[in-house]
Design goal:
Layout lengths: L1 H7 L5 H23 L1 H8 L7 H47 L7 H24 L1 H18 L4 H48 L1 H6 L9 H47 L5 H23 L1 H18 L23 E8 L7 E8 L4 E5 L6 H8 L7 E6 L2 E2 L5 H6 L1 E4 L10 H5 L8 H10 L2 H7 L17 H15 L3 E5 L7 H14 L15 E5 L3 H4 L4 E6 L2 E6 L1 H7 L2 H13 L8
Parallel strand pairs: 3-8, 3-9, 6-7, 7-8
Antiparallel strand pairs: 1-2, 1-4, 4-5, 9-10
Helix pairs in contact: 1-11, 2-4, 2-6, 3-4, 3-10, 4-5, 5-11, 6-7, 6-10, 7-9, 9-10, 15-17, 20-21
């Protein structure tokens, strides 16, 4: 635990933490001294001159007072360190997550980050102020008592020092048996919680298929698994308790037998032997304290492990002398993939993909599901890095670009839109917090968000709910598009961004995006492109707005060119287009 806690501390606090540990060790020795001082006190009280016990009582008083002072200093240091952890850890984790590779944040790690961020500061503060001191004290006290017993009876002291690690090993083995089953039971309980929510939300579907009962469902299986894990928890706790009980009794027997043997040899008086038995009881008490703290210790260790995992999350490497990308409006960049391979976990998603997207073009990336289309956008945005090959913007490898200028040059609209808790306006202006009202209204008009604003009673001040749950999927997508348009980045990436929008609004949005991509200056047809747009699409209506098409299949680019060129070629894109057109003419008809 100490090593993990040290790793989480800022460098400036590590000196204070070492002083804290020194105070804990000193305090533990003083606590042990108060215990062992009972031996000479009892010896003198039952000796020929009981008054000789007073000097030892004075020693006990001084040692106790010194122990209080040292413990107070240690506690204050612990509180100060805990406060630093609480105040800095949340910020450090957020900064790390803001820089981490997007590909690393899968669903499990996202849930882990959510659970960790929810209470990491308070958890570490509470652990530092309430757990570390008693855990360290309980761990060190048997050794300190054994060390001081050497001055009273070196054989008893040696046995105490030898038994301490054996008792701790037995305690650890016992704790591991219980904790493994406890974690399993906790995971089973969490699974039941998830399945209860799922079972409640899916009642319409379950009832429609006559499966509304819990028996035989995922919920029923989760409840059965929880019951089995509970039985295992009980079964494993008994051997653990028996193991530690046997170890404790053996230690007590060895220490007691050694003390009696020293009395028989004349090295200890009867009062000293009786006092040593009192010390032996105090010697064994810390192990009970550790058992009582086991649950809290496990929780803190779990928090530290999750925190360390997030702080060590991989961050995309930055070039020694990064290149800044010109992200000024009107500076539309070109995009190129050169023989790119990407195979997470050994499964190829892209296999030697090469393509060129002209600057200022509207390029549609099409192909069958699982072909690698979305991954191309992720590589361009550098959410992930390729395993081989290169991704270039304006001829510069994205790995050589300054991360801030790279991200500043692009806006992304995802298929699965997540809106932030807040108002509709707050979600749109996240694209550009400094945007004027006119710019916001213009972006809203392009994405047809102005219709949503006009329809809702609170207009721009309408709260969208967590994740945008108060809005439809199409409305969320339009708000996301408005947010991207408001950023006015020279590279716009759209991943099925209009999949939930009805046909009429989809055409209007795409037309408006195409119009917004021209700055109005004279150039051939009267306009000059000011933005490069890359669209992953499945609908022919979306592809119809593109002036360049890339067809991807099995991780490779098999065709590219203008829509008309590819249709005339009669290849894979032409077949895909015919299938989409045929689908629009399907009609339901009665059977003759």
């Amino acid at each position: 635990m100490i090593a993990r806690l040290t790793a989480l501390l800022p460098d400036a606090e590590r000196g204070r933490f070492r002083r804290y540990l020194a105070l804990v060790v000193a305090g533990t020795l003083l606590r042990a001294a108060t215990c062992v001082t009972l031996v000479p006190i009892i010896r003198e009280l039952f000796g020929d001159r009981p008054a000789d016990a007073w000097p030892w009582v004075g020693v006990l008083t001084l040692v106790t007072a010194a122990g209080w002072f040292v413990d107070l200093r240690a506690a204050r240091n612990g509180i100060a360190i805990g406060r630093v952890l609480m105040e800095t850890m949340h910020e450090r984790l957020v900064d790390r997550l803001a820089a981490v590779s997007i590909g690393w944040l899968d669903a499990d790690r996202t849930n882990l980050a959510q659970r960790t961020l929810a209470g990491v500061g308070q958890s570490l503060y509470s652990g530092m102020t309430n757990l570390v001191l008693p855990i360290l004290t309980a761990t060190l006290t048997p050794y300190a008592i054994g060390l001081l017993l050497l001055a009273v009876s070196w054989p008893v002291g040696l046995v105490a020092l030898a038994c301490a690690p054996l008792l701790q090993l037995a305690h650890r083995a016992s704790d591991r048996l219980v904790r493994a089953a406890d974690r399993e039971a906790a995971a089973a309980g969490a699974e039941v919680d998830l399945r209860v929510v799922e079972f409640a939300r899916l009642q319409p579907v379950l009832r429609a298929f006559g499966r509304a009962e819990a028996e035989g469902s995922a919920l029923g299986e989760a409840v059965d698994a929880q019951h089995r894990s509970g039985v295992r928890l009980l079964g494993r706790s008994i051997p653990g308790q028996v193991l530690f009980a046997i170890a404790s009794q053996l230690a007590l027997l060895l220490l007691g037998a050694t003390a009696v043997a020293r009395w028989s040899a004349g090295d200890l008086s009867v009062p000293e032997t009786i006092a040593i038995f009192v010390v032996i009881v105090r010697y064994l008490e810390p192990f009970t304290e550790l058992a009582d703290l086991a649950g809290a210790t496990e929780a803190m260790a779990s928090t530290m492990d999750r925190t360390a995992l997030l702080l060590d999350a991989p961050v995309p490497p930055v070039a020694a002398t990064p290149t800044r990308l010109d992200a000024a409006p009107g500076r539309a960049p070109s995009v190129e993939l050169r023989d790119v391979t990407f195979a997470p976990g050994g499964t190829p998603v892209l296999d030697g993909a090469s393509l060129t997207i002209p600057a200022g073009s509207v390029t549609a990336v099409v192909g069958p599901s699982g072909a690698g289309k979305t991954k191309i956008l992720s590589l361009v945005a550098r959410f992930v890095d390729p395993d081989g090959g290169a991704v270039l913007l304006d001829g510069v490898d994205v790995r050589d670009l300054d991360p801030a200028s790279h991200l500043g040059a692009l806006a992304v609209v995802f298929q699965d839109v997540y809106l932030f808790e807040g108002t509709l306006r707050e979600n749109v202006v996240r694209g550009n917090p400094d945007a004027t009202d006119d710019a916001i209204e213009a972006a809203a008009a392009i994405a047809r968000v102005d219709e949503i604003v006009a329809r809702l009673p609170d207009g721009w001040d309408t709260r969208v709910g967590e994740g945008g749950t108060t809005l439809s999927g199409g409305e969320r997508q339009r708000i996301s598009i408005a947010r991207a348009v408001l950023k006015d980045a020279p590279l716009l990436l759209l991943d099925e961004a209009t999949s939930a929008i009805d046909a009429e609004n989809e055409v209007a949005v795409l037309d408006a995006l195409a119009a917004a991509g021209a700055d109005g200056s004279a150039d051939g047809d009267g306009t000059t492109a000011r933005r490069t747009v890359v669209i992953v699409a499945h609908r022919e209506r979306t592809v119809a707005h593109a002036d360049h098409v890339v067809f991807v299949e099995a991780g490779r680019v098999v065709e590219s060119g203008t829509p008309q060129e590819l249709l005339d070629a009669g290849g894979r894109f032409a077949g895909w287009w015919r299938d989409r057109e045929a689908g629009t003419t399907w009609r339901l008809a009665p059977t003759p």
